[in-house]
């Protein structure tokens, strides 16, 4: 019995050895047939991102592709692919220039993951280990300050300048939570450029009036604030910070917030209205020329006078909802929008009236309020 078992054991070992001698060299050859070395990305901010790698193989390389994914808030897992034109060879110096003008640009702080897909003439296909690259505006030497979920980056101005902006950001978050119950659920990154010209130089095809922008899909803010223009900068930062938090709270694959609600929350969190907005609002109330609430659910007019009135009404509408109803109602409204509700359904669910109902009630409220104003 023992002798039979020994013979069987020897036979099994021989079989495993033969199988191993057949499989192992092939597996080893396939695993080392293609290698990707020196994979890197170099930033040419803000215009381009240059990728390169040195690829070696024991068999002619016939196909090389670069795949990359941009880290942003999205319900779709999107991978982009770039085909690299090559001549078959054992060694390939692969290179690809991602023209950021074609994707609208990427803000500083955005992250991108990339890897190479390579095929040789024998049909072997490998994917390199993914690398993560953070977009950076390397034209400046950035300093950093972090508190809670707010990350502040600046390069001009002393530490007191940055600390003032950070204190403003923290105050804005506290006030926003008090008024709406909304709090950020992921870190927010704020890049402070020296002025609006420097900011616009960091963007692809910016508008000449751009002073600050919220890249809500990346939870990134970029603003041009000089130490001598700090008061304006505090208001602008609060405005864009509010947009970022509200986007996090309401992000969904169905629809955006009504424009007036989004802008009104940002303006309300800044504080009281200036005369730039109070004057046109008062005149519109007196002359019965207020826009309908439904009309400002859509993007505002490009004409400055109409835009100012739209922003003023947005502030007033949010002020009405916050002062006449509880803050938890506003949070419920935001959560209802997050679940994909239509405008009318959301207001009907939370407040018991639709957009037309809000329009009539708010206009009555603002007329009474304006009549009592000195």
Compute the number of helices.
Answer: 10
Structural class: alpha+beta
In total, the number of strands is: 12
Please report the distance between the alpha carbons of the first and last residues.
111 Å
N-to-C order of helices and strands:
HEEEEEEEEEHEHEEHHHHHHH
Q: What number of structural domains do the residues give?
A: 3
Share in helix: 40-55%
DSSP strand content: 15-25%
Which radius of gyration do the C-alpha atoms yield? 29 Å
Q: Describe the main β-sheet briefly.
A: 7 strands, antiparallel
Shape: elongated
Give the low-confidence spans: 1-31
Q: Average pLDDT across residues?
A: 91
Please explain how this structure is put together.
With 374 residues, the chain is an alpha+beta fold. The chain folds into 3 domains: 32-134, Immunoglobulins (Immunoglobulin-like); 140-251, Glutaredoxin, CATH 3.40.30; 255-374, no CATH class. It is 44% helix and 25% strand. The protein has 10 helices and 12 strands. The strands form 2 sheets. Strands 1, 2, 3, 4, 5, 6 and 7 form a 7-stranded antiparallel β-sheet that branches. The longest helix is centred in the first third of the chain and has 32 residues, at 2-33. The protein is elongated. It starts with a helix and ends with a helix.
Give a brief description.
It contains ten helices and twelve strands. The chain is α+β, with helices and mostly antiparallel strands.
Write out key terms for the chains shown.
single chain, 374 residues, alpha+beta, Immunoglobulin-like, Glutaredoxin, 3 domains, 7-stranded antiparallel beta sheet, 5-stranded mixed beta sheet, 10 helices, 44% helix, 25% strand, elongated, disordered N terminus
């Amino acid at each position: 019995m023992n002798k039979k078992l020994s013979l069987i054991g020897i036979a099994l070992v021989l079989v495993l050895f033969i199988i191993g001698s057949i499989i192992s060299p092939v597996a080893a050859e396939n695993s080392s047939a293609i290698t990707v070395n020196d994979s890197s990305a170099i930033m040419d901010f803000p215009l381009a991102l240059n990728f390169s790698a040195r690829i070696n193989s024991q068999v002619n390389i016939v196909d090389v592709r670069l795949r990359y994914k941009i880290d942003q808030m999205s319900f779709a897992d999107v991978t982009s692919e770039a085909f690299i034109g090559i001549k078959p060879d054992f060694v390939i110096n692969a290179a690809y220039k991602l023209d950021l003008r074609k994707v609208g640009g990427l803000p500083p702080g955005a992250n991108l993951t990339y890897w190479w897909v390579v095929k040789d003439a024998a049909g072997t296909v490998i994917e390199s280990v993914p690398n993560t690259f953070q977009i950076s505006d390397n034209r400046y030497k950035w300093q950093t300050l972090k508190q809670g979920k707010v990350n502040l980056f600046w390069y001009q101005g002393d530490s007191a300048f940055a600390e003032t902006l950070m204190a403003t950001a923290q105050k804005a978050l506290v006030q926003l939570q008090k008024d709406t119950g909304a709090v950020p659920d992921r870190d927010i990154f704020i890049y402070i450029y020296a002025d609006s010209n420097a900011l616009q130089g960091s963007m692809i095809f910016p508008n000449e009036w751009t002073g600050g922008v919220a890249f809500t899909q990346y939870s990134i803010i970029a603003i041009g604030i000089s130490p001598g223009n700090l008061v304006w900068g505090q208001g602008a930062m609060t405005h864009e910070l509010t947009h970022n938090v509200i986007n996090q709270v309401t992000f969904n694959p169905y629809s955006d917030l009504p424009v007036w609600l989004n802008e009104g929350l940002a303006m309300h969190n800044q504080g009281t209205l200036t005369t730039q907005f109070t004057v046109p609002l008062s005149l519109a109330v007196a002359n019965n020329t207020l826009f309908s609430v439904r009309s400002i659910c859509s993007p505002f007019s490009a004409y400055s006078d109409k835009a100012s009135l739209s922003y003023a009404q947005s502030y007033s509408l949010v002020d009405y909802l916050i002062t006449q109803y509880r803050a938890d109602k506003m949070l419920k409204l935001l959560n209802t929008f997050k679940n994909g509700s239509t405008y009318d359904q959301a207001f009907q669910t939370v407040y018991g009236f639709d957009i037309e109902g809000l329009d009539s009630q708010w206009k009555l409220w603002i007329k009474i309020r304006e009549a009592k104003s000195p």
